[in-house]
Protein backbone atom coordinates (compact mmCIF):
# COMPACT_ATOMS: atom_id res chain seq x y z
CA UNK A 1 0.00 0.00 0.00
CA UNK A 2 2.87 2.39 0.86
CA UNK A 3 6.53 1.88 0.01
CA UNK A 4 9.42 4.03 1.23
CA UNK A 5 12.82 3.70 -0.42
CA UNK A 6 15.91 5.41 0.99
CA UNK A 7 13.87 8.20 2.57
CA UNK A 8 15.93 10.79 4.47
CA UNK A 9 15.14 14.05 6.24
CA UNK A 10 17.31 16.52 8.10
CA UNK A 11 16.75 19.70 10.06
CA UNK A 12 19.51 22.26 10.65
CA UNK A 13 22.07 19.84 9.22
CA UNK A 14 21.00 17.14 11.67
CA UNK A 15 19.74 13.99 9.95
CA UNK A 16 16.55 12.84 11.66
CA UNK A 17 15.71 10.04 9.22
CA UNK A 18 18.43 8.27 7.26
CA UNK A 19 17.78 5.94 4.30
CA UNK A 20 14.46 4.61 5.60
CA UNK A 21 13.21 1.57 3.70
CA UNK A 22 9.75 0.40 4.67
CA UNK A 23 6.86 -1.51 3.10
CA UNK A 24 3.43 -1.00 4.65
CA UNK A 25 0.85 -3.53 3.53
CA UNK A 26 -2.90 -3.11 3.39
CA UNK A 27 -4.66 -3.91 6.66
CA UNK A 28 -1.56 -3.79 8.87
CA UNK A 29 -1.73 -2.37 12.38
CA UNK A 30 1.70 -0.90 13.15
CA UNK A 31 3.18 0.78 16.20
CA UNK A 32 6.23 3.00 15.90
CA UNK A 33 8.30 3.61 19.03
CA UNK A 34 11.41 5.60 19.85
CA UNK A 35 12.75 8.31 22.11
CA UNK A 36 11.48 11.88 21.93
CA UNK A 37 12.91 13.62 18.89
CA UNK A 38 13.87 10.39 17.15
CA UNK A 39 11.79 11.17 14.06
CA UNK A 40 8.44 9.45 14.65
CA UNK A 41 6.35 12.55 14.00
CA UNK A 42 8.57 13.54 11.08
CA UNK A 43 7.97 10.15 9.48
CA UNK A 44 4.20 10.48 9.88
CA UNK A 45 4.31 13.98 8.39
CA UNK A 46 6.20 12.67 5.38
CA UNK A 47 3.71 9.81 4.96
CA UNK A 48 0.82 12.28 5.18
CA UNK A 49 2.42 14.65 2.66
CA UNK A 50 2.80 17.47 5.19
CA UNK A 51 6.60 17.34 4.89
CA UNK A 52 8.70 16.53 1.86
CA UNK A 53 11.57 14.10 2.23
CA UNK A 54 15.01 15.43 1.31
CA UNK A 55 15.92 12.20 -0.47
CA UNK A 56 14.28 8.95 -1.44
CA UNK A 57 10.97 7.92 -2.94
CA UNK A 58 7.51 7.16 -1.57
CA UNK A 59 4.89 5.33 -3.58
CA UNK A 60 1.23 4.91 -2.65
CA UNK A 61 -1.44 2.57 -3.97
CA UNK A 62 -4.04 4.30 -6.11
CA UNK A 63 -6.79 3.89 -3.52
CA UNK A 64 -4.73 5.32 -0.65
CA UNK A 65 -6.89 7.76 1.37
CA UNK A 66 -5.09 9.11 4.43
CA UNK A 67 -6.58 10.36 7.68
CA UNK A 68 -4.24 11.67 10.36
CA UNK A 69 -3.81 13.08 13.84
CA UNK A 70 -0.34 14.60 14.02
CA UNK A 71 0.92 16.85 16.82
CA UNK A 72 -1.55 19.46 18.09
CA UNK A 73 -4.88 19.18 16.24
CA UNK A 74 -5.91 22.37 14.42
CA UNK A 75 -9.49 23.54 14.22
CA UNK A 76 -11.48 26.67 13.46
CA UNK A 77 -11.31 27.74 17.09
CA UNK A 78 -14.35 30.02 17.32
CA UNK A 79 -16.70 27.47 15.77
CA UNK A 80 -18.48 24.39 17.15
CA UNK A 81 -17.55 20.75 16.77
CA UNK A 82 -20.32 20.24 14.18
CA UNK A 83 -19.13 23.22 12.15
CA UNK A 84 -15.56 21.94 12.17
CA UNK A 85 -16.38 18.34 11.23
CA UNK A 86 -18.79 19.50 8.52
CA UNK A 87 -16.20 21.91 7.12
CA UNK A 88 -13.52 19.20 6.98
CA UNK A 89 -15.90 16.58 5.60
CA UNK A 90 -17.10 18.86 2.79
CA UNK A 91 -13.56 19.48 1.52
CA UNK A 92 -13.62 16.14 -0.30
CA UNK A 93 -16.95 14.44 0.39
CA UNK A 94 -20.59 15.08 1.12
CA UNK A 95 -21.08 15.53 4.86
CA UNK A 96 -22.65 12.63 6.76
CA UNK A 97 -24.27 13.69 10.02
CA UNK A 98 -25.01 10.08 10.99
CA UNK A 99 -21.40 8.96 10.69
CA UNK A 100 -20.12 11.91 12.71
CA UNK A 101 -22.80 11.34 15.33
CA UNK A 102 -21.78 7.68 15.60
CA UNK A 103 -18.18 8.58 16.41
CA UNK A 104 -19.15 11.45 18.71
CA UNK A 105 -21.41 9.11 20.67
CA UNK A 106 -18.53 6.62 20.92
CA UNK A 107 -16.36 9.26 22.60
CA UNK A 108 -19.17 10.96 24.57
CA UNK A 109 -18.99 14.22 22.61
CA UNK A 110 -22.13 16.22 21.88
CA UNK A 111 -22.14 16.84 18.14
CA UNK A 112 -24.79 19.55 18.51
CA UNK A 113 -23.08 21.46 21.31
CA UNK A 114 -22.77 25.19 20.61
CA UNK A 115 -19.52 25.38 22.61
CA UNK A 116 -16.60 26.66 20.53
CA UNK A 117 -13.69 24.30 20.02
CA UNK A 118 -11.37 26.82 21.71
CA UNK A 119 -13.10 26.02 25.00
CA UNK A 120 -12.53 22.26 24.68
CA UNK A 121 -10.18 20.46 27.04
CA UNK A 122 -7.12 18.67 25.69
CA UNK A 123 -8.93 15.35 25.84
CA UNK A 124 -12.00 16.68 24.02
CA UNK A 125 -9.82 18.16 21.28
CA UNK A 126 -7.99 14.87 20.94
CA UNK A 127 -11.26 12.98 20.56
CA UNK A 128 -12.42 15.46 17.92
CA UNK A 129 -9.13 14.97 16.08
CA UNK A 130 -9.48 11.17 16.14
CA UNK A 131 -13.02 11.49 14.77
CA UNK A 132 -11.94 13.63 11.82
CA UNK A 133 -9.21 11.12 10.97
CA UNK A 134 -11.68 8.25 10.48
CA UNK A 135 -15.07 9.82 9.67
CA UNK A 136 -14.58 9.78 5.88
CA UNK A 137 -13.81 6.07 5.74
CA UNK A 138 -10.09 6.72 5.28
CA UNK A 139 -8.23 3.48 4.63
CA UNK A 140 -4.84 4.65 5.95
CA UNK A 141 -4.89 6.21 9.43
CA UNK A 142 -1.84 7.87 10.97
CA UNK A 143 -2.06 8.61 14.69
CA UNK A 144 0.59 10.52 16.64
CA UNK A 145 0.22 10.04 20.42
CA UNK A 146 -3.55 9.58 20.00
CA UNK A 147 -4.31 8.78 23.66
CA UNK A 148 -2.84 12.04 24.96
CA UNK A 149 -5.35 13.68 27.29
CA UNK A 150 -7.87 10.81 27.14
CA UNK A 151 -9.47 9.50 30.32
CA UNK A 152 -9.76 5.77 31.02
CA UNK A 153 -13.21 5.40 29.46
CA UNK A 154 -12.12 7.20 26.31
CA UNK A 155 -8.97 5.09 26.08
CA UNK A 156 -11.13 1.96 26.22
CA UNK A 157 -13.32 3.36 23.44
CA UNK A 158 -10.20 4.18 21.44
CA UNK A 159 -9.04 0.55 21.80
CA UNK A 160 -12.45 -0.62 20.57
CA UNK A 161 -12.31 1.78 17.62
CA UNK A 162 -8.89 0.50 16.56
CA UNK A 163 -10.15 -3.10 16.72
CA UNK A 164 -13.15 -2.15 14.58
CA UNK A 165 -10.99 -0.34 12.02
CA UNK A 166 -8.60 -3.30 11.90
CA UNK A 167 -11.51 -5.67 11.24
CA UNK A 168 -12.57 -3.39 8.38
CA UNK A 169 -9.14 -3.86 6.80
CA UNK A 170 -7.85 -0.35 7.44
CA UNK A 171 -4.10 0.28 7.58
CA UNK A 172 -3.25 1.97 10.89
CA UNK A 173 0.06 3.40 12.07
CA UNK A 174 0.30 4.62 15.66
CA UNK A 175 3.22 6.45 17.23
CA UNK A 176 2.78 6.20 20.99
CA UNK A 177 4.88 6.01 24.13
CA UNK A 178 2.00 4.55 26.15
CA UNK A 179 -1.76 4.11 26.31
CA UNK A 180 -1.86 1.41 23.62
CA UNK A 181 -0.83 -1.62 25.63
CA UNK A 182 -4.15 -3.40 25.02
CA UNK A 183 -3.87 -3.17 21.24
CA UNK A 184 -2.66 -6.26 19.35
CA UNK A 185 -0.24 -4.80 16.81
CA UNK A 186 0.89 -6.74 13.76
CA UNK A 187 4.26 -5.01 13.76
CA UNK A 188 6.30 -2.85 16.12
CA UNK A 189 8.98 -0.66 14.57
CA UNK A 190 11.63 1.39 16.36
CA UNK A 191 13.33 4.52 15.09
CA UNK A 192 16.79 4.92 16.56
CA UNK A 193 19.62 7.17 15.34
CA UNK A 194 17.75 7.89 12.14
CA UNK A 195 17.24 4.24 11.25
CA UNK A 196 14.12 2.08 11.48
CA UNK A 197 14.14 -1.55 12.53
CA UNK A 198 11.53 -4.23 13.13
CA UNK A 199 11.16 -5.14 16.80
CA UNK A 200 8.45 -7.76 16.43
Automatic annotation (TrEMBL):
Keyword Plastid belongs to the record: no
Acyltransferase among the record's keywords?
no
Database matches in Gene3D superfamilies: P-loop containing nucleotide triphosphate hydrolases
Membrane-crossing residues?
Answer: none
Any GO molecular function: ATP binding
Give the ABC transporter domain ranges: 2-199
Keyword annotations for this protein, in alphabetical order, are: ATP-binding, Nucleotide-binding, Transport
What species was this sequence derived from? Faecalibacillus faecis
Q: Which CDD domains match?
A: ABC_DR_subfamily_A
User: What name is this protein filed under?
Assistant: ABC transporter ATP-binding protein
Amino acid sequence: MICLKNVSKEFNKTKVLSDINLNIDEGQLIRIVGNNGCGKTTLLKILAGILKADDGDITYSEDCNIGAVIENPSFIENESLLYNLKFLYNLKNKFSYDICEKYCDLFSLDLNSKIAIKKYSLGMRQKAAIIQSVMENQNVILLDEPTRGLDNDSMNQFDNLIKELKQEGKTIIICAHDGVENIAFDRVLEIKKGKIEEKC
